[in-house]
Amino acid sequence: MTIQVNPAVLIWARETAGFALDEAASKLFKDGVKATAAENLAAMEEGEKQPTRTQLAKFAKLYKRPLLAFYMAEPPRTGQRGQDFRQTPDDRTKRENAMLDALLRDVKARQEAVRDLLLDDEDFWEHKFVGSMTIDTPVTTVASSLSMALGFEHRDKSLRRGEPDKLFRTLRAAAEDIGIFVLLLSDLGSYHSTIPSSVFRGFAIADEIAPFVVINAKEAKTSRSFTLMHELAHIWLGATGVSGQAYTGNPSNQAAKIEQFCNDVAGEFLLPTEYFKADAVEFDPDDTDAAEKIIDAISYSWSVSGPMVAYKLYRMGDLTSNAYSTLRNVYHARWQAALSAQKSKQKDGEGPSRNVVLAHNLGDALLGIVSRSVRTNALTYTKAARLLGSKANSVETLVRSYEAKMNKSDLFNGAS
Q1: Which Pfam families match (predicted)?
Q2: Where are the beta strands (DSSP E) in 153-243?
């Protein structure tokens, strides 16, 4: 039985998923005696043929759209999901941008569901820090505001003991404690849909009820603190949107000015200018070898990444643009090598289980509200699975794991 579908909706679904006609057809159909796969799909998109319900289900799965979307009378207008703050040259493929768009839709749907749950809670409160600053506010003032809100003295180097990932976990927990949901996401549910950090580093939803920060899970662990603080700066500005790699050019529009401002805030928070300069020695701004040694020393002392220190030195005029670009390429190559090594370990079966990784990526704030809502019957397991991006039969495992972690933490705090 065929289904009456507007051909324009089929075209819209394919194009917004980033597929060329031939590419989509090869995944949906097989070449037949009477028509090729591409001819079959073209006939449907031209209204000459109608798809069956089974075929529509395949469309929905491939294009990452709900089945009901194909029953719309007309294609919808492009949704407003925030500003695109990415300033690096647009060498991203149409497919990569389409996958990012699908991820943004998914996270926005989760955020709205969390918002509804919070509004039903009598104890909810609006977060006054959202939109509390502007780009005319001094960078140091915003950094100090973040420091006070998070309860983390950013100028105290004694708090920076350990690896950069330890600092990220500390800052993430502090952000979640004040009501900000911090997730690590990089795909649409499988490695086939992985979105590299070159496409996006993070994005923020600056909502006064349920502020969300998403960091690309493929981002180097050493760089996550910078991305987190950058996105928190977006929250403080009330600027919802997606961010990319740091840009060295002069800002030519408002989005570029906001992006540079957020980079500077993150840099000031993680490396307070008047304090970290005490660790530095003078060197030729074009001498990348000398710079790298100094960068290594500073990054170790402050538990931040080399690229972060290099960016700070560049913004302060201690590194030339060419030297900074060279060092960025060096650090990027190292990260790619580390990623390859990590993939090899995963192929060999090493590493934590999928649920352990998922729980870490979702964060305690999201797991916490799901746990409370499931236990009070405010949320079904099916809806909880959508919020967590998991299967319904995994919800109980994830919730119990979170609850055990919290109970252990409570026991530890009580003993101390």
Answers
A1: Peptidase_M78 (PF06114)
A2: 181-185, 202-205, 212-216, 241-243
